[in-house]
Amino acid sequence: MGGNSPCASCKLLRRRCAKDCIFAPYFAPDDPHKFAIVHKVFGASNVGKMLQELPVHQRADAVSSLVYEANARVRDPVYGCVGAISYLQNQVSQLQMQLAVAQAEILCVRMQHEPVTPTIPQIDTDDKSFLLQNGLPQYLNLGSSTSNVIHDSLQRSESSIFGDMIF
Fold first, then answer.
1. Where are the membrane-spanning stretches (predicted)?
2. Contacts of 13 (CB under 8 A, 6+ apart)
3. DSSP sequence for 99-157
């Protein structure tokens, strides 16, 4: 910074803020707590090295991440951000479960208000189109391959059970 007031980093470390101070653009003098917490968790030297290794356009995001992680580490020294993420994932799971229960309850209420009456098709006994070729009633409306399998099975079982009877 090199001007009137040193950046938060130089102020905390009690050194003169040079024009090319790597911390100055990211740690303003009016927010000393931001650098203090990052320094406490990561150390000024490590943060300086990290920032120097990054391209300039990525440094602001890196500082933002460091501040977030440092705050999380102060709150939860063991798990840090991972603890916060796990907590939020558990909360999402619980909310999804509550949503599923609520949707099931809504469905139950709708079903109670709109009773479903099963419709049984009326069979005209004069119309023989509901019978299969072998004279047995057709109760299922299945796909052609399934009905062929059922039809073939019925023919085999009829021939073995009824022998040479004519239908």
1. none
2. 39, 44
3. HHHHHHHHHHHHHHHS---PPPPPP-TT-GGGB-TTS-B------HHHHHHHHHHHHHH
Q: pLDDT truncated to tens, each residue of the chain (167 aa)?
A: 445 689 999 999 999 998 889 999 999 999 899 999 999 999 999 999 999 999 999 999 999 999 999 999 999 999 999 998 999 999 999 999 999 999 999 999 998 888 666 666 666 666 655 555 555 555 444 444 444 544 454 454 444 444 554 43
Q: Token pair for residue 155?
A: 């023919």
SS3 of residue 50 by DSSP: helix
Give the H/E segment covering residue 80: helix 80-113
Q: Whole-prediction pTM value? A: 0.55
Decide if 5 contacts 21 (C-beta within 8 A): no
Q: Are 9 and 39 spatial neighbours (Cβ–Cβ below 8 Å)?
A: yes
Residues with Cβ within 8 Å of residue 162, at least 6 apart in sequence? none
- In the block, tokens 């090295």 appear at 49
